[in-house]
Amino acid sequence: MGSARHDIRCLAASAVGVPSSSAMSGAEALFVTRGRDILKSAEEIMEILDAYDLTGSLRDSAELVGCSHHTVKRYVEARDKLGGPPSGTARRPQLIDDYLDKVEEWVERSKGKVRADRVHQKLVWLGFTGSERTTRRAVAAAKAAFRVGNRRVHRPWVTEPGMWLQYDYGDGPLIDGVKTVLFVAWVAWSRFRVVLPLRDKTLPSVFAALDVTFRRIGGVPTYVLTDNEKTVTSEHIAGIPVRNPQLVAFASHYAVTVHTCVPADPASKGGTESSVKLAKADLVPTEANLRDAYDSFADLEAACEAFGEMVNSRPHRVTRRAPVEMLAEERLRLHPVAAAPFTVAFGTTRVVPVNTPMVNFEHGQYSVPHRLCGATVWVRVHGRGADEQIVICHLTDAGPVEVARHRRATPGTPMLDGQHFPPAPAGALERTPTPRTVADSEFLALGEGARLWLVEAAHAGTGKMRVKMAAAVQLARLFNPADVDWALGHAAVHGRFAEADLASILDHHRSRPHPQQLQASEDKSLTQGTRGWATYGTTTPEEIAS
């Protein structure tokens, strides 16, 4: 289109006796471009041609539009020769015209990725004296032309129900300073998403996530598509991916075929790419979503489950239906899930004792949740050196679940997690006084002071405690029991457990003025008086007494 316009413009210029832009100097071309008396605008040209079509006379049409009949003749002849009205402007020659072939060559070699500043530097070496702005415009035009001829065109993927499932990974949030992984699976036909948090991308973790995904969607598809991770493809030979042997066994166990996309080509699995982007935007705490940091891995699991329910229950923008409704139809086309999960990669089996939630593995002991007492678990080693960890998995109705992760234990030093054990029974360490005889009941009935005295006196190894307890009961019958209980409490706090200590504390307590007597009132003040000044200056006791 641009070439045609250029030819039309050159023809119009030649019609008025002006050379074309290729044969003009810079000043002549500028004059032709900006000269309104030589070349008309597109609107003026159309008015001239319309007037000629209306009147059929060069002079009449020139009178109608207000120009020379020679001008009308030139545009009419140009239209008759080109088959259309002349339009466009003449392009001025530029300094970079002699280097355009080289610019196009560099853009072609770099597949449209070369930078304009690099191109300008190379052109300067070749003798180009123009500005960098001119180079940038030329490079932009060359890149646009390259993209037109090399643009990748995507054909819509129309999949069948029960055929494809894609999965990928995303960086999860930090929990206790350790980065997690988001496993995102996407069922192609129903657009159903499954998001699971993982602690790593090792083969057992991926197998466990896939098993949970199959059981959550209610079946196994025919094909699974993913990236070329080491857990899937061990290497490439002549462009052919070599599958991991353990993955082959896993696929055979679930009767599924695993495919991998072309390396460095995320567009081939755009469904999971978009799902990962959406999951990270909602689940990873950022300033944009105002989500708080997670306190535990269980909180992240709950958030992933809530996210899945949200995106699967609302209508999808393409199908206009909720994925959970479409999955109910697609589930009829899925293969049944194997009753027993694939456990070869989960490690060594161990049976948890019925009364102690601990398992032995390679001369070390590791705790598991107490609810697994009597159950079978799988134990494996993950990492090396300082990062070595012991991972323990358990099989549930929903699939394999990681239940514990410990650092390497040494013989005689087990690795324990306090959350794996139930609360200690009442009185296991802190014993509470419980009456067994009538004398015990009478003494403990005095109150909390008596209970405290019994505990502290027993810890201090006090002798004749029963005699002293009986004496306290007798004092409670003679005096106020509340005062006796108060005295017992003070005796326990200050460690006074001798025979006469209780009576001494009680006597001192009774001899002290009542707290109400030490309070100020309308007719009594607690301010110190001046009576003591009356003896000031006296020298003998008689004078003081008088």
Brief synopsis:
The protein is of the alpha+beta class and 546 residues long. Helix content is 41%, strand content 15%. The chain has 5 domains: 2-82, no CATH class; 96-150; 164-333, Ribonuclease H-like superfamily/Ribonuclease H (Nucleotidyltransferase, domain 5, 2-Layer Sandwich), CATH 3.30.420; 347-420, no CATH class; 438-513.
3D architecture notes:
Helix content is 41%, strand content 15%. The chain contains 19 helices and 13 strands. The strands form four sheets. A five-stranded mixed β-sheet has the order 3-2-1-4-7, sandwiched between helices. A four-stranded antiparallel β-sheet has the order 8-11-12-13, covered by helices on one side. A two-stranded antiparallel ribbon has the order 5-6. Strand 1 (164-175) and strand 2 (178-187) form a beta hairpin. The longest helix has 19 residues, at 132-150. The chain is elongated. The protein starts with a helix and ends with a helix. The model is unreliable at 1-37 (pLDDT under 50).
Mean pLDDT over all positions: 83
Level-2 CATH architecture of the largest domain: 2-Layer Sandwich
- Give the class-level CATH name of the largest domain: Alpha Beta
Largest sheet: 5 strands, mixed
Number of helices: 19
- Find the CATH topology of the largest domain: Nucleotidyltransferase, domain 5
Total strand segments: 13
Q: SS-based structural class?
A: alpha+beta
Task: Outline the low-pLDDT stretches.
Answer: 1-37
Helix share, percent:
40-55%
What is the percentage of strand-forming residues? 15-25%
Task: Give the strand order, joined by hyphens, for the main sheet.
Answer: 3-2-1-4-7
Computed CA radius of gyration, to the nearest angstrom:
47 Å
